[in-house]
Prior knowledge:
- By secondary structure, the protein is an alpha+beta fold.
- Helix 4 (113-122) packs parallel to helix 5.
- Helix content is 45%, strand content 12%.
Amino acid sequence: MIDAVGGIALLAVALLPMLIISLAILADGGRPVLIRQRRIGRHGFEYQMWKFRTLPKDTPQVAKSHLTEAAMRTTRLSRFLRRHSLDELPQLLNVVGGQMSLVGPRPALYTQDDLTTMRAAAGVLSVKPGLTGLAQVSGRENLELSQKVALDADYVREMSLALDCRIAIRTLGAVLRPRGSF
Length: 182
């Protein structure tokens, strides 16, 4: 219930910025503005996650470490959107649609078998993936995979409204002072 109400409220607040970002992406690199990525959700089921496009058209859906230099070419706009996690705003549609939660472990790409296997073993796949999570406010891309999974498992064990509120507040700081973002 909190996810649905919170997602709708945040989506209403984010509509104008999302429109501006959409127009900027159109001007910067054309269509498509939005992309859907295959992600692993609760209980290991796949779903389509929405994002603003920040990489060249037709970039394969693989982990960043597997992308070629050409696929990693970004514009200043794309780097800004990624650095401040603004490319993630369309995921509010996934929250409202029930595939994601506002707070929870970030969803793995369907190609990240190593991460999915580690999460399954740690019980992390028992909860919905989140727009933000404990690993994101604890180092983001500066963390090793095993560290992320450990933080995700800690979150699942300690899940509470109070913890979600602390993570949401820390997310604001992580977005305003982006360290470890791609």
